[in-house]
Amino acid sequence: MTDGDPRSLALIGDVGGTNCRLALTHAAPDGKPDISQARTYPVAEYATFENAVGAYLDEVGAHVSAAVIAVAGPVSDGAVTMTNHAWRITERGLSAKIGAPARLINDFEALAHALPALGADDVLPLGDTPAPAARSTMAVMGAGTGFGTAALVRDGASQAVLVAEGGHSAFAPGDALELEIWKRLAARFSGYVQVEHLLSGPGLVNIHRALCDIEGKPVSFETPDQITDAVEAGDPRALAVADRFVRIFGATAADLALAQGARGGVYLAGGVSQRLLSAETAPIFRARFESKGDFSPYLVAIPTQLITHDQPGLLGAACAQADQKGS
User: Fold this and answer.
1) Is the pTM of this model over 0.85?
2) What domains are there in the chain, each with its CATH number?
């Protein structure tokens, strides 16, 4: 059974390509969302999302008054079709299942909602970075299957989440080697090289193939996991890919921080980010982040941190529900 007032209990979820994570939330006495009864369900074992929700609510014995679900995909008119499996999730269908209002949000929208709730144990500072400007805009971005971006826009009196398509903005080479990489990717992608073509799982493979072509060497890795595993094993060619990824990520993070005025901090998320960003690679990341000519002093004052919270999607959904309830 569950704790708390059933009238304030909400269902939250984080739906990815492989797993569906569900939990309950309600406002704790300190006003922050409390998360309980978290469970993980493999999506392959359920024909529909509603079936997984039914199994979860039966398991925990809960009745909920609302739902907020973060999904790894674009939400359009209250619906999303998952790209890595057959689920189509709609607010209307979920609302009918639980008998209460339901809301779908993009996974990076959820992460933006979560940013103010992250504590010191939930992040890894990337470099010796300063304290953020109080009540200022915060940005989040991450490399995984693709490259996602969002921002929590704050002016001191109110806030709103901005979800954008920063991963599809143009990649700007930062040195001679990156220009050579750009030339090879431009030939493959009809002349337009996106940030996501480099800062993502597939992007690692793109970087590796371009470096192989530049150096006249055969391709060693065919998948992102092969590259990240080889990085952890200390393979020199994989480390070269990781080094270039971190440099490009630092420059891109700075571009987005400038575009969004993210003086409240830049936060990094995503599976690839977590495997390649660390205290050891932070100086490389930070050097490119701060290297923006006349605007370097502006960026020096912005902290950069890797999100290490084990369930940031659930936390973000809980915060979005709390924000919605309080509005």
Assistant:
1) yes
2) 6-114+311-326 (3.30.420.40), 119-308 (3.40.367.20)
